[in-house]
## 1
Amino acid sequence: MWIADGWKDYELLDCGRGEKLERWGDKLLVRPDPQAIWNTPRIHGGWKHPDGRYSRSSTGGGSWEKGRLPGQWQVRYKNLTFQVKPMNFKHTGLFPEQAVNWDFAQERIRAAGREVCVLNLFAYTGAASVACAAAGAKVCHVDAAKGMVQWARENAKASGLEDAPVRWIVDDCAKFVEREIRRGRRYDAIIMDPPSYGRGPTGEVWKLEDNLYPFVELCAGVLSDEPLFIIINSYTTGLAPSVLTYILETVVSRKFGGRTVSDEIGLPVTESGLVLPCGATGRWTGDR
């Protein structure tokens, strides 16, 4: 498992009984987590007095009890700064376990010894885009939600990267890639974090189990002659990391060679010493 253990402003203090207790800067949050189904004693005092708690509703959805929680605040990861805030469906706008992928992308970009162009698809609030820009890459950030792209711009500004070479695109990811292929634009690296299920701006249905493989096939057409890396992340329940390996090996390695490594990503739990699994990531690199 790839473990995101480089944080100072974020800490997974404890988890169990379907919830997790987290420290975001100096704010304590309690949020649901479907993986934390073990039953352990809740010793940490933060369980009783968090700054904010998201509770599931028996009729679906849920709501925040915000208590002392501000509208938004900042957290830092190494030299990056991100805006976080309580959102619908328990989210904060940042997935701290993704730090393992930010580190990986930065290492590959810095070691390349050449200009690197990165395409970040389903790019959400732009943490990966900001990380790649901070490492010196040119970035194209694509997400279908205008509000998320604006948030990503704010994250870039908070990290001192408002003038970095980033293209901020509000668009359907598949349609954008199709146009980039027709325009002859090419990218040295692709990052994608596709949803399990979604609808496009004109009602197109996205189901990961049906659409991921052809989407990766499509994206292979926008790669440069000497691509550097591809990262696919998935939070789809039941999708084994090995599936991402097979997709990348079948589509990308067949054309470019290279190698793929896939694994779970996770967060260390301070109270118990366990690691909370948080999804699967596949990484293809052009290494021979």
## 2
Amino acid sequence: MDQHILDVVVTRGDLVESRHRVHAAVVNAAGELAGFSNDPNLVTHWRSCAKPFQIMPLLANGGFDEIGWGDDQLALACGSHGGEPEHVALAESMLASLGMEEGDLACGAHDPLAARGQKLLRESGARATRLHNNCSGKHAAMLARAHTERWPTVGYERQDHPVQQACFDEVASWTSLPKERIGRAVDGCGVVVFALPLASMAHAYARLADAARRSHEIPSRVVHAMQTRPFLVGGTDRFDSALIEATEGHVIAKIGAEGVHSVAIVDEGIGIAIKVEDGNMRAQFPAVIAVLQHYGALPADLPPRLADFTNRSIRNTRGEAVGDVRVLTN
């Protein structure tokens, strides 16, 4: 078993000024722990990393195909998009296909996460809407589940609604955890969020990768959509998109808030889950890259787009490099 040092330090001159503690679990499809950093059984909220599993009930009941959706809609439902015009238009069209509109979404409005999305929205003079929310694709898919099952659409985000109960069942199944061991709370976008050990998160992604490479229908569809539509999973300057593109889909990844990330090395059937203890995103991407390099899923010399996410310089207000952000080496 590999023990990794993934803690991220922030330097200023020769001094380490800040340090971010990073926990990680690396698990194979059999559920065996192959590697870890700090506490691989740390319990935390899965956040948006659960999206590829939350869409599965809609695929399983045939509703997804009944509506006539395809890989674009599936990728957006799995992703945390950057609120760029293409993302917003697709989310709006998903709702329109259900006879619904932005007001039917239970998520709140927030500014686009992608710099391009922010710039274009600012230049347009428009305001951010619920469609700009990075979870609007997931919410549209949850509304679709309620719509196709003829369940009430109002309150679809609540813990006792059948839509959320089905998502809970799916998460329990893929993580191989009994429901009583899975905590539930309210996510940033308003739906149910699940709390579980990092090792269980990693196991779910390992099983997803393994099932996809064995051509199991629903996992294959989810993985294929993420592999082939990276822009819809994230956006122009979003880490998950850059990672999927750089590996040509051999790695799929899902960011979560508060320093959580879940990754699958598809061809190897390996799942990885990390949690930056203090939730700081500046430590998140370097840690993910470092563990993927250890397992050979990324080269030592990173392509430029990915390199921008690691070994970042700390600059002062005059633009001078005065330190850096980097992972401690083993």
## 3
Amino acid sequence: MQSFGRWMILAAAAGIPGPHVSAQDMMSHVDLSSPMFASAEMTRAEVAAMLKASPGGADFSGKSLNGLDLSGLDFTNANFRAARMNRTKLSGAKLDGAVLDQIWALAADFSGASLKKASLFGSQLQEAKCDGADLSGARVTADLSRASLRKAKFAGADLAADMKNQSMGLMRGVLKSADLAGADFEGANLALTDLQFAKFSGANLKNASLAEAEAGGADFRGAILDHTNFNGTDLTSARIDAAQEKAFAGAKNLERAFKE
């Protein structure tokens, strides 16, 4: 596919091995201190000017925008495919419908940003700050390990594994050790995702599917569970409310979860 080919070109430029390496397991294969991943080739003023000149959706694909303060800007329908945005500040920015596939946004700040129906395929957002961000209806096969997503909105979002296109390895939402306190996942698809050690305190999982997800060590205490699908979900060492044990019917290793 075209996006994969584009990714392979950028990956080669960054010294990343070929398609046998998962796009979600490449941290050890890049030099994050290099200018490509640590500096910016544009200023905020230049970014704003580009947005003004392209009202239908500006193209920032492949750009290095690391560390810029782009908070509050309107990036509706913009294309950021394969851009580097490590530690970039996008708090309060509007990214509805934006293409954020294969971006590098380590420790970036998306707090309060709107990413409704955005696409984040194979993206790297480890340790990102996304508190209060709105990803309703978004496609998120991104690595959000250790990210802060307190009160973020994922209503109707699709974080499930992409079983049709695995040329880059199994692409799925990864929320390993993420803080999801108070997040809204109502109606979201988290099937086959990696939720190990994630914190779901007060999160809304009504009508969400966590089928076949890896949720070992995850904390579901205080989560809102109503018609939540846990079929095949691995709950080894997970922490759940004893009073809600029935809500986890169909889960794997439920007997090995801590019921409190």
